[in-house]
Amino acid sequence: MTLAEAKRHIDSFSRPQGFNTYSWRVVKKMALKAWEKHLEGKVLDHSVNYMCREFYMMIKDQEGRCIIPTNRIQSPYLRN
Fold first, then answer.
1. What's the CA gap between 79 and 2, in Å, rounded?
2. pLDDT tens per residue, range 1-44
3. Which of 65, 62, 6 is nearest to 36 (CA)?
């Protein structure tokens, strides 16, 4: 996947209820940053914890594998 494809993938998700425009933009920006690092062969240098299932779906590759190491994610959504 290219960064442009990752952006299209991220943009395909609708803003969940309870997220305003600003907070949704932050979620999408973090997902894109995760993809950027992944495509560079690097890992995010901090942990993530977003309270929406969409974020965790955004950071899965085409085979359904998470692109962020599980020890960097603090969320019950990872287990689903």
1. 26
2. 899 999 999 999 999 999 999 999 999 999 999 999 999 999 87
3. 6
Task: Return the C-alpha torsion angle 42, 46, 51, 56, nearest 10.
Answer: 10
Domain count, the chain: 1
Domain containing residue 45 = 3-79
Residue 16, judged by CB atoms within 10 A of its CB (0-12, 13-18, 19+), counts as: middle
pLDDT digits (tens, 9 = 90+) for 52-61: 889 989 999 9
For residue 51, give the nearest of 24, 79, 75 by alpha carbon.
75
HSE at residue 9, side-chain half, CA atoms within 13 A, is: 20
Tell me the CA end-to-end span of the chain in Å, nearest whole number: 23
